[in-house]
Amino acid sequence: PSPLRRLRGLGGGLLTAAAVALAAAVLLPALLGFQRYVITSGSMTGTYDRGSLVYDRVVPTSSLKVGDVITYAPPRGAGPAGLVTHRIHAITTGPDGRRVFRTKGDFNPSVDPWTFTLQNGTQAKVAFHLPYVGFALAALADRSLRMLIIGIPALLVALSVLAGLWREAGETAAEGRRA
Q1: CB-based burial of residue 151 (10 Å sphere; 0-12 exposed, 13-18 middle, 19+ buried)?
Q2: Which of 11, 51, 92, 173 is the S-S candidate for 135 at Cβ 3.0 to 4.6 Å?
């Protein structure tokens, strides 16, 4: 095979391997009951860098202790909108007897300014992470990029099929002239 064909085969193999690895990183943990979240800020840098994909296991809130890293929604109006993945800095008991949590991002100089209680009996707690894989998932959320990722391979397959058909038609025409 020509160097171009070898290069094309290697490129196709690498792209296929990357797609299979990304699919496995997303689907296998989900089948095992893990939830996944992409780290989008730098508040946990050093532990979970920006772009990391963290996998959370749902655990009973009663099992949470200081030092655990959880993914939760801060109290409305007190913190950022959306989910936050921070380490539990303190657990106290409120006047109503419920556990009150205070968290802190590992890279942040001070604790989060809010406290909160967890309303449900279960909570997402970080089990493990994959560094930088979240960038790929975040990129796939962009429709144009997703279309490119699907469109370019589809275009290459179509061109390859057309080239094969063109080649076969030429060979058939040449055989017809010889006969």
Answers
A1: exposed
A2: 51
pTM: 0.73
Closest CA to 115 of 145, 86, 154: 86
Q: What is the mean pLDDT of each run of 10 residues along the chain (179 residues)?
A: 84 86 86 93 95 96 97 90 95 94 97 94 96 86 84 85 88 83
Residues 138 and 52 sit within 8 Å (Cβ to Cβ): no
Query: What pLDDT does 81 receive?
Result: 87
Tell me the CA end-to-end span of the chain in Å, nearest whole number: 30
DSSP secondary structure string for all residues of 19-67: HHHHHHHHHHHHHTT-EEEE--SSTTTTTS-TT-EEEEEEEEGGG--TT
At residue 87, what is the residue type? R
